[in-house]
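Why does this matter for the project? Reviewers at the last site visit asked to see concrete outputs rather than summary tables. In response, this paragraph embeds two records directly. Each consists of the residue sequence and, immediately after it, the corresponding structure tokens. Nothing has been edited or filtered.
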Amino acid sequence: MNSSSPAVTMKNPARPEVVPTPRARRKWNLRHARLGWWRRWWWWASFVVAACIACAACGVGEKREGIPAGAQTVVDVLTEDIGEGRADKIYREAADEWRRATTAEQNAAAIERLRARLGRVQSRTAIKRTQQPNAGGALDGHTLELIYQTSFERGAGTENITLVERDGRWLLARYFVSSDLLNP
């Protein structure tokens, strides 16, 4: 009998058992030993479940849904007003928090500086959208914070727009643009 061929035993004639030779056993063991921890699928399954839980935990307290229609309208009108230099309209239509934080003259100067250095908005890519039913603190009520990576006519920057909902209307509470072109 050849040492590489398996031996056949006949404990039950209807069902013969194949007993591998020592050489065949070594081949099998080497082939499966190379797989190592890959064979233990439950480790991989545990890792995947843990990773999913960790990723889900990162988004707790943060909603990343679409922007409400009224809020999107405010952002679009704000973009148009800044592009046209209508600082007085922005100031009049903003929330009380905006008017308490700045005067009409400071608002006009900031809008003009933004227009002069960066120009009009060309495109926006949403980075983060956060809605809070009751923010508390300085912003009382339902708030929506929008952070965009924005491309302007003369450069790029990050826009941070905070809106607050009052009596069913969205109002501008904060607006901030971060760009190297705005630095003195």
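We now turn to the second protein, recorded in exactly the same manner.
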Amino acid sequence: MKYGIAALALLVAAGAQAGERSSAPDTAYAYIISPAHGEIVDSEFLVRFGLSGMGIAPAGVEREGAGHHHLLIDTESLPPADQPMPASDKLVHFGKGQTEARVKLSPGEHTLRLVLGDHMHVPHQPVISSRPITITVRAAEEPAPAAPAGKLKGLFR
């Protein structure tokens, strides 16, 4: 019985928080520092996250005016603003408060966008997101052909 009451209390607390969203200043915004819009990158590259008007706090740490980044990859629309953002290969969480990450994508054109989430991975009110950028991942270069046998003879005397 005591476990049933504890579980019920947790459900009630979670339900009370479900409709609440953390507030953000109207002047706050997120942006992608690098890569630049239109840049051609290798299949593995560094994405640097920018944020103005707010601070960074890890997931699970409730701090007014702060949140953590989520990277949307090849996603046309923002996730629902009234619920936690689900982690996937198209929506990557940086819940430790990271401000940069190495990303690996297949060759071709991709879009990237940041969304700031609160301690519960819910977008702030108003939603703080970057403008989407488009990058192109170049195809892996072919390995250089091996030098024909005998051609290097004499070069390393």
